[in-house]
Structure formats: structure tokens, C-alpha cells
Amino acid sequence: MKVILLKDVKGVGMHGEVKTVADGYAVNKLLPMKLAEPATDEKIKKFESMRAEHEAALAKEEEQTSNKIKSLNGKKVTITAKATEKGGLFKGIIEKDIAKAILAEHSLEIPVDLITIDEPIKTVGEHAVKIESKSQKAALTVEIVGSAI
After folding, report:
1. What per-residue confidence (pLDDT) applies to 149?
2. 95 is in which domain, residue-wise?
3. In CATH, what number is assigned to the domain containing residue 134?
4. Given phi > 0 = left and psi -120 to 50 = alpha, else beta, which region is 83?
5. How many CA atoms lie within 13 A of 92 on its CB side?
6. Are 95 and 110 in contact (CB under 8 A)?
7. Residue 77 shares a structural domain with residue 142
8. I need a surface site. Which of 9, 117, 119, 122 has the fewest CB within 10 A?
9. Model-level pTM greater than 0.85?
10. How far is CA 17 from CA 38, 53, 91, 134, in A?
11. Are 81 and 89 in contact (CB under 8 A)?
């Protein structure tokens, strides 16, 4: 029996795939548990069009993110944080803080998972940060300015 998988099924396939499985497996397991639905010609066409729309939306989103990252290459972002007299920070600066600073200074929303730092920034000064998507890479300088307590 041909089925369209609605969820990932171990040993069978991934979400959205059209698979041929044993009739008993489809009727007794996949269909009652809403893991799959019978594959008719019109359902396959509908599912393919939905997948094409979804892939187009993902490609558009990736292109927009790539353009944002390209525009940030070589730029500088300043973050003010509470610091000691010796230049150590009371709270480490993480990727989320850098994303907020980019949004505030450059009006660009960058997903936090694309920002890479080796470890949280704990000192005042300039630090190099990498921003990477599937197709674009950028180097960004983050300047940490200490403020009095």
C-alpha cells in the first residue's frame, strides 16, 4: 500500500515521503496512529505543491538571512555591561546579547544559532565574533564597554 508519511517513522522514512509498505502495517499501525495517510493521486499532488511552497519559503528566508550577514561583515557592535575596575565583567556576554545589540544598532534580526563565540565574553575590549549561515560567513567585532557599578 502506498502511503504519505505525516511524521518520521523509524525504519520506514521521513516526513513527507511517499512509501510503499505492507498493507497490514499501514492499516494496523501507520493509519490509526496518524503517522501516515493513504497516497492517492490528488493527495500526492497536493502534498508536492505544499512541499514546493515550503521549500521556496525556506530558500527566500535563507537568502534574506544571507544578505543580512553579508551586510554585517566587518562591522562593529558596542555592548555596555557592568564591569570591575580591572576590566572583568560581572556577567558573561553570550550570543543572545550580541543578537540584541545587532538588532539595536543595525536593525537586523539575526538568529542566535548563527552567531558563534568560543566561550562567553567576560572581559572589556574588542572581541571577534563569527556569524555563519549555510551560504554566507561574516566576521563581526564586538566592543565591550565597562560601566560603573
Report:
1. 65
2. 69-147
3. 3.10.430.100
4. beta
5. 7
6. no
7. yes
8. 119
9. no
10. 12, 16, 47, 24
11. yes
